[in-house]
Design brief:
This protein is of the alpha/beta class. The chain contains seven helices and six strands. A six-stranded mixed beta sheet has the order 3-4-2-1-5-6, with helices on both faces.
């Protein structure tokens, strides 16, 4: 029967596999309703954590200058990286900051967006650039960034929950 022969041939031929994709990190059910515990769980994971710099700082230290906010976040994040062993990247808008391009520190990486590009777009590109096998957590309250990076398989942590863990 030709139809069954065609079906057998079809089954035997290699098929194009679906494009690989990053999967969000699974989170234990016991942490539901415990945002601080969930944040710590994700920070202790093998994920690369990308922090939306000013999104965190403006809510955490609104009365400080942008320079002070950057310095405070960098210092606190370095302590967090030392405490949890987290691979952290902080991204700031940087076109207006003289000499700001990228800082490699011993425990974290600090990036500044180039002229004409927002930190939001740098965050999106960093998520896309990382290997699909590497889990990613993005710290932001920006709804557009959350939507875009979630579609790339990233976990999301709010800026407020991240700030609470910085000082816990």
């Amino acid at each position: 029967d030709l139809r069954s022969l065609g079906q057998r041939l079809e089954a035997a031929l290699p098929h194009e596999q679906a494009a690989a994709e990053r999967l969000p990190l699974p989170t234990p059910g016991r942490l539901n309703g415990n945002p601080q515990g969930m944040t710590i769980h994700l920070l202790k994971s093998t994920a690369t954590v990308i922090v939306d710099g000013y999104n965190v700082t403006k809510g955490t230290w609104p009365d400080r200058s942008l320079e002070q906010q950057r310095e405070l976040l960098i210092a606190a994040t370095e302590q967090l990286a030392a405490r949890f062993g987290t691979h952290l990247i902080i991204v700031f808008d940087g076109a207006d900051i003289a000499g700001a391009h990228r800082e490699n520190r011993s425990l974290i990486r600090v990036m500044y967006s180039p002229n004409g590009i927002t930190a939001d777009d740098v965050i999106r590109e960093e998520v896309r650039r990382l290997p699909l096998s590497r889990p990613v957590v993005v710290i932001t309250d920006d709804q557009a960034i959350q939507r875009d990076v979630r579609s790339e398989g990233a976990n999301i942590v709010s800026s407020a929950h991240f700030s609470q863990v910085l000082y816990s």
